[in-house]
Specification:
The strands form two sheets. Strands 1, 2, 3, 4, 5, 6 and 7 form a seven-stranded antiparallel beta sheet that branches. Strands 8, 9, 10, 11, 12, 13 and 14 form a seven-stranded antiparallel beta sheet that branches. A hairpin with a 4-residue loop joins strand 8 and strand 9. This protein is α+β, with helices and mostly antiparallel strands. It is built from six helices and 14 strands.
Length: 286
């Protein structure tokens, strides 16, 4: 929390700045960083190297909002960096603990010159201050953060495996689960050729859709099969692992959990954490 931080020692206020900030009881760190706590919660202050999760609103001295991460629905996750210049935003972050809310006034000229290292935009007044309203949601060591991410990944995988198994059962789909990968494969029309191996170039026609039936891509309409070399990382893991289950000339369906596809990243028309279904035909193996 700020009251126990070395940065929280008050400095004599400058009346002109107080008027500029339009705030009463603005305090200053020894370096000159202006701040005012909205909420001050006892706890461990962030230190350099910690992982923090926060929301912030950035406004000009005329109260024009430049950015609002709450409106963006995007939590900022970053590591605390050592300040590279006096009265910087990084210094302010090291004054906060989990649950704190605090306003910081940063010199626009200094922020752009020394922080962003860019020219001051014309719509921001030279000599003005930008106001950061910060809400600190989490402060963790890197080890704590990595452990949290690992636990979340395990839970997400377990939940998705259960959902896919339920989908297979509910829809009476006769498919084989590759327990090592989590990928299901359903034979629709058996092939008689050989199975491809790592290093083989394969030619595949496919139609991909989500669990709700929405098609996001298809090679069929383009008229040309898609080709790639197995095991080279040219495609999602579910394809590198699923296509070798097929024989040349075979038609089937691959049910691929998101952790073998695009994970928590949105890709084109595919939402994050999406299980994918591919109707595939192994046209050729070379």
């Amino acid at each position: 929390m700020c009251s126990s931080s070395v940065f929280a020692q008050k400095k004599e206020k400058t009346p002109s700045k107080a008027e500029l900030f339009k705030e009463k009881d603005v305090a200053y760190t020894p370096s000159g960083l202006a701040y005012k706590y909205r909420t001050n919660v006892p706890g461990k202050n962030a230190v350099v190297g910690d992982v923090i999760q926060l929301h912030f609103t950035l406004s000009t001295n005329k109260d024009s909002i430049l950015r609002n991460t709450v409106a963006e629905n995007r939590m900022v996750i970053t590591t605390v960096q050592a300040p590279t210049y006096a009265a910087s935003f990084e210094e302010g972050l090291a004054m906060m603990s989990k649950g704190d809310s605090c306003a910081f006034w940063i010199s626009a000229d200094t922020l752009f010159k020394k922080g962003i290292k860019a020219e001051l935009p014309s719509f921001i007044e030279k000599g003005s201050f930008l106001r950061f309203e910060v809400k600190m949601h989490e402060v963790m060591t890197m080890a704590e953060y990595l452990k949290q991410q690992e636990e979340m990944a395990k839970k997400t995988k377990a939940d998705e495996d259960a959902a896919l198994a339920s989908y297979i059962k509910t829809n009476n789909i006769v498919a084989t689960l590759d327990s090592a990968t989590g990928v299901y494969y359903q034979v629709v029309q058996a092939g008689t050729g050989s199975k491809p191996k790592r290093g083989n170039k394969v030619y595949v026609h496919y139609t991909g859709h989500l669990l709700n039936g929405e098609i996001f891509d298809s090679s069929v309409g383009r008229g040309d099969p898609f080709d790639f070399i197995i095991g080279q990382g040219q495609v999602i893991e579910g394809w590198d692992e699923g296509i070798p289950l097929m024989r040349k000339g075979e038609k089937g369906v691959l049910y691929i959990p998101s952790y073998r596809a695009y994970g928590d990243q949105r890709t084109g028309g595919i939402p994050a954490n999406s299980t994918l279904i591919f109707e595939v035909e192994l046209v050729d193996v070379k």
